[in-house]
Amino acid sequence: MVIFDCDGVLIDSETLASRIDAEELTRLGYPTSYSDVVLRFTGLSSATMRKMVEEDWGRALPDDFDAMVQARIKESYRTELQAIAGIDNLLHQLPSPRCVASSSAPEKLRLGLELTGLLPHFEPHVFSSVMVKVGKPAPDLFLFAAAKMGVEPARCVVVEDSIAGVRASVAAGMTVIGFTAGGHCLEDHGQRLLSAGAAVVARSAEDLGALLTTSTAPQRL
Asked: Which has the closest alpha carbon to 185: 169, 202, 200?
């Protein structure tokens, strides 16, 4: 089975979310750049990001911070969001069972997949970190997804763009392919994913399709 992360793997949303997070944190007095958000928070849930900021800053974010940021992100989804180039074609051709396991909240997760036309490739097998006690980089979400799909962890391949997601996959005993086709991926991102435990890196949907469907894939695939 193939387990796909969503943001930055299926939909090119990390650029939108990271830009908005940086703008709102800076506006509140916690100076943060787009690159800072990408490097520190990609792959983490909103609750985890909030906890990290508050611990570092030494003060609490406003109660409505998460709701305000999510409202801005959803608005940007409706006008700017695109699927990762080539991912729809890959999913049409992929014979393996598949599901989504994402740190995004269920409403936002579903909205992104609906707007890009990708939801039919996965429904109803769409899992959010709110369904488990601890999100990425803990393995809970991936283990939960595998259990729901009735597949042993060792027979799962995860496609991830984030350090947290790669570490969660490794902790779950799954093979992980690092994916760097998202617009947020910096030049050295592939090497960072490999250092975190990815078996190999795919730089495009075409590369990913080859890894998932041919003998060029890592041995555990």
From this structure: 202
